[in-house]
């Protein structure tokens, strides 16, 4: 029916207009972000897939780095970064886990990892541990026979003169 085709066409034009308006709005926001000197990154409100793709495109054209975060479609949002403040892998991982990025905590984690690596390196330089148990093999059985049993057995043992050469 022609009236249905007209309705569909009208809806498509309306959607197209909304996308164009949304893009203009995002271009303005990105422009403000670029001019805001104390702002290395900006988090945008959650938006649908089409809006996110428009924002990613606007960011790319403006020479910015952008990423989407969030698990489900309703809560996914875009974060835009200035090139000189491009996020590290650790920072991106924090956002992917849904955490706030804390450079001080990240520095502490990095120091701990470095320390662990140094310890591992030191152990590696000393060579592998000698094979076998690090303690006296008798200690392994002490709980079974006690510490005096072996001495007592040795004292009571006498040579059997009937046996031998």
TrEMBL record:
The R3H domain is annotated at 20-83
Annotated region Disordered: the residues are 99-140
User: What's a Gene Ontology MF term here?
Assistant: nucleic acid binding
Which SMART domains does this entry report, sorted A to Z?
R3H
Q: Where is the composition biased (Basic and acidic residues)?
A: 99-114
Q: Any signal peptide, and if so, which residues? A: none
* UniProt name for this protein: SPAG7 protein
The source organism is: Smithornis capensis
Origin organism lineage = Eukaryota, Metazoa, Chordata, Craniata, Vertebrata
Per UniProt, what is the name of the gene that codes for the protein in this document?
Answer: Spag7
């Amino acid at each position: 029916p022609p009236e249905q085709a007209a309705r569909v066409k009208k809806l498509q034009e309306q959607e197209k207009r909304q996308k164009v308006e949304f893009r203009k709005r995002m271009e303005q926001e990105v422009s403000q972000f670029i001019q805001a000197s104390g702002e290395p990154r900006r988090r945008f409100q959650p938006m649908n897939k089409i809006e996110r793709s428009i924002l990613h495109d606007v960011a790319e054209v403006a020479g910015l780095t952008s990423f989407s975060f969030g698990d489900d479609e309703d809560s996914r949002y875009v974060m835009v970064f200035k090139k000189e403040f491009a996020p590290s892998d650790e920072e991106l991982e924090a956002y992917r886990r849904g955490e706030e990025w804390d450079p001080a905590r990240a520095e502490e984690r990095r120091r701990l990892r470095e320390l662990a690596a140094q310890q591992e390196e030191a152990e590696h330089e000393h060579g592998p541990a000698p094979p076998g148990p690090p303690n006296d093999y008798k200690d392994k059985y002490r709980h079974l026979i006690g510490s005096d049993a072996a001495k007592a057995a040795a004292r009571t043992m006498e040579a059997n003169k009937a046996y031998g050469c």
